[in-house]
Amino acid sequence: MPEEEKEIETAPAAPPAQSQRKKIALIIVLVIVGLALAAGISLFVVTKVMGDLPSGGEHEESSGPRYHDSGVFIKLGDAKEGILVNVGGPRSGKFLKASIIVEFNPGKKSVINEETNTLQPDAEVKVNDVATQFLRAAKLEDFDADKQDEFKKQLKDALNAALGGGSVYDIYITSFLLQ
Q1: Taking Cα atoms as reference points, which of 74, 89, 76 lies closest to residue 176?
Q2: How high is the pLDDT of residue 53?
Q3: What is the pLDDT of residues 13-51, one digit of tens each?
Q4: Strand 72-75 and strand 94-104: pairing?
């Protein structure tokens, strides 16, 4: 019987196959975590970049936010008549009568009186001056229907330059008569 005791072998503590399996499992977990991290970073970058691009494929230089709450709508010029100016130079004999509504940023306290939702007195003078000068300086060709979007963008930019960036959200033309 003593010989039988010698034949009993002790099992090794950790076979090399189990150690290798743990290393492979660790590598697989690290690869999965790395891929998830890369996907998360890619998603973040793409949404930030795509969120900054305007729709329509054109790069629009906008000083205001792309999406915003409703602004304060104010009609330029006389409340009933709108704006009446001579255009095309002093000898052209052409007059423009237009109803132009400007959507102002309600968060600009220097432009909008938050209690009454009207223009501040100094901002009103600036707006009317800039709009009148802009319309009087425009050439007759600038009033073509094909150029209306560019015309509105230029007026918006002129108003934002006078009042501070982001003061004007948009320009709306509700009537336009050139004689």
Answers
A1: 76
A2: 52
A3: 556 678 888 899 999 999 999 999 999 988 888 887 766
A4: antiparallel
Report whether 152 contacts 101 (CB < 8 A): no
**Cβ-based neighbours of 101, under 8 Å, separated by 6 or more:** 73, 74, 75, 76, 171, 172, 173, 174
Does an H or E element contain 18, and which? helix 16-52
Q: Retrieve residue 122's tokens.
A: 């100094």
Task: Report yes or no on whether pTM surpasses 0.70.
Answer: no
* Closest CA relative to residue 140, chosen from 102, 82, 172, 93: 93
Taking 50 as the threshold, does the pLDDT of residue 56 lie above it? no
Instruction: Tokens for 33, please give them.
Output: 């975590």
pLDDT 10s digits, 66-82: 666 778 888 888 888 88
pLDDT digits (tens, 9 = 90+) for 135-145: 888 888 888 88
**Strand 72-75 versus strand 168-178 pairing type:** unpaired
Contacts 24+ apart (CB under 8 A), 76-83: 76/100, 76/101, 76/102, 76/127, 76/128, 76/131, 77/128, 77/131, 82/175, 83/131, 83/132, 83/135
Phi/psi zone of residue 19: left (φ > 0), alpha (ψ -120 to 50 degrees), beta? alpha
- Are the beta carbons of 71 and 104 closer than 8 angstroms? yes
